[in-house]
Amino acid sequence: MNDLVILSDASLRRYNTLGLNARAAVLYLPFSKEALIQAIRSTQGKKRILIGNGSNLLLAKEYYDDSYAFIVTSHADNLIIEGDEMIAEAGVSLNRLAWFCVEQSIDGYAFAEDIPGTVGGALIMNAGQFEYTIGMYVNWIDVYHTENETIKRIIPDADFFGYRRSQLEEHADIVLACSLKTPKGESMHSLEKILEYKRERYRKQPREFPNAGSVFKRPTKNNQTYYVWQLFEETGLRGFRIGDAEVSTKHPGFFVNRGHATPSDMLALINECKKRVQERFAIDLHLEWKVID
Q1: Alpha helix positions (H), 10-82
Q2: Whether 146 contacts 50, CB under 8 Å
Q3: First vs last C-alpha separation in the chain
Q4: Domain end among 28, 50, 72
Q5: Domain that holds residue 263
Q6: Distance, CA of 132 to chain centre
Q7: 91 and 198 share one domain
Q8: Does 159 share its domain with 219?
Q9: Are residue 227 and residue 281 in the same domain, yes or no?
């Protein structure tokens, strides 16, 4: 099979966890790191949109013309052990990473099992939870530098990763692969941690409808941090709905697609929620989602 598949007039519904039925004039599906590099090089001059699992993402248009280049990285997903390090390509899902570590008796990655993303996206936003993040385990990151079309290796320093962010956000670099630490663990202990985290997320988060994770970052005002779901609760936004886009009744920090939500439904819901919170609390909300417009 050709390692790079190119589709025309392709539906993006399966490539975004909100399940929005946007379409792209051109869609690239690389099935290896080399094919990913080929796709990047062949789309120079276009607005590149790299999609891993499609979480944390809002497609704001119903149609993207050929000035856009959508590249799905989730098939470039080689994952191996080399000596005392684990080499993961950008498209490796965090779910697969966690189970691979269970099988290999590697400790520390149980937190990743229920995060709906890929290694590439996780490195950009330092994905994790209250106790662990992927940045804690990184040895090096190979990236494609789009400005001079070269591949370089980054050795992260102490300031490279922060809360839900990394310095990868600040540069024209595309993640190709990384090396992760392999602390020795015990498979049954890791399995128990996975089930513990999964049980807690299922208890709190909406799973019955498509969603893209937390919509807004936790805001701060006068050095005080606020929970978005509490602001929404006090503003009467739980269950508020525009079209088929809804503030989750289970957890107001999530927006869900009740079935046929459109990009304009989601954008309208975002703007109305921001407006009401600003009017009530004088707090500005900032998206955690990446908007593709």
Answers
A1: 33-42
A2: no
A3: 33
A4: 72
A5: 206-292
A6: 16
A7: yes
A8: no
A9: yes
Q: CA-to-CA distance for 236 and 197, rounded, in angstroms?
A: 29
Residue labelled with tokens 């993040």: 133
Do 127 and 149 lie in one domain? The reply is yes
Q: How many CB atoms lie within 10 A of CB 178?
A: 27
d(CA 66, CA 10): 11
Each of the 293 residues of the chain gets a pLDDT tens digit; together they read 579 999 999 999 999 999 999 999 999 999 999 999 999 999 999 999 999 999 999 999 999 999 999 999 999 999 999 999 999 999 999 999 999 999 999 999 999 999 999 999 999 999 998 889 999 999 999 999 988 889 999 999 999 999 888 999 888 899 999 999 999 999 999 999 999 999 988 898 999 999 999 999 999 999 999 999 999 999 999 999 999 999 999 999 999 999 999 999 999 999 999 999 999 999 999 999 999 99
HSE-CB of 131 using CA atoms within 13 angstroms: 7
The residue count for the chain: 293
Report how many domains make up the chain.
3
Residue 82 tokens read as 């080399």
Catalytic annotation, residues:
164, 214, 288
Domain boundary among 161, 177, 202: 202
CATH number of the domain to which 96 belongs? 3.30.465.10
pTM of the model: 0.91
CATH of residue 60:
3.30.43.10
